[in-house]
Specification:
Elements: H1 2-6, E1 9-11, H2 20-27, H3 32-41, H4 43-55, H5 61-71, H6 77-86, H7 93-99, H8 123-126, E2 133-135
Antiparallel strand pairs: 1-2
Helix pairs in contact: 3-5, 4-5, 4-6
C-alpha cells in the first residue's frame, strides 16, 4: 500500500493491493521499466493463472500471457504447468460447497468486542460510496 501511495495512487476501497484490476490500473500510470519490473516480479503468479485458464479452455488466458510477454520475464512454464495439472479441481460443486461452508455456530465461544456487523457501525458504515481510486500529486519516483 505504501508503494501505491508513494507514487500518488490512493486507494479508497476495500480492495487489496494485489487485486489484479487495481494492480493493473496502478501500473498503467507508471513508467515502462517500472511496469516490466513489477510484472516480472509476479510473472510466476500470472503463469499459474494462465495455465489454470488454459486447462479450462478459457479464452481469458491470453490476457495473462500478454502481461507475461510485456514483463519480458522468463518463467519455468513446464514446471508450473506440471504443478497446475496435479492440482485438485476447485470448481466442482463439492469444492465450492466446502469453500463456502459456514463455520459451526458455538454459543460458548467468547464474544468479539469489535463485532463488524453490529448496528452502530462496522463494515456497512465504513464503505465509501465514492470512486475507489484517486490520484494525489506525489512526485513520481524514477524506476530503479
Amino acid at each position: 500500500m505504501a508503494e501505491y501511495t508513494g507514487r500518488g495512487f490512493d486507494i479508497n476501497s476495500e480492495q487489496m493491493p494485489d487485486y489484479i484490476p487495481l494492480f493493473l490500473e496502478f501500473l498503467s500510470e507508471q513508467e515502462e521499466a517500472y511496469v516490466c519490473e513489477w510484472l516480472g516480479d509476479v510473472s510466476h503468479i500470472l503463469t499459474i493463472l494462465s495455465e489454470r485458464l488454459l486447462d479450462r479452455q478459457c479464452d481469458y488466458q491470453i490476457l495473462f500471457e500478454s502481461l507475461i510477454e510485456i514483463s519480458g520475464a522468463t518463467v519455468e512454464r513446464e514446471k508450473i504447468a506440471e504443478a497446475v495439472k496435479k492440482e485438485q479441481p476447485d470448481d466442482t460443486i463439492e469444492a465450492i460447497d466446502k469453500a463456502w461452508e459456514d463455520k459451526e455456530i458455538r454459543f460458548d465461544d467468547p464474544i468479539e468486542a469489535d463485532c463488524q456487523s453490529s448496528c452502530g457501525g462496522g463494515y456497512a458504515s465504513s464503505v465509501i460510496p465514492e470512486t475507489p481510486v484517486s490520484w494525489n500529486n506525489a512526485p513520481i519516483k524514477p524506476a530503479t
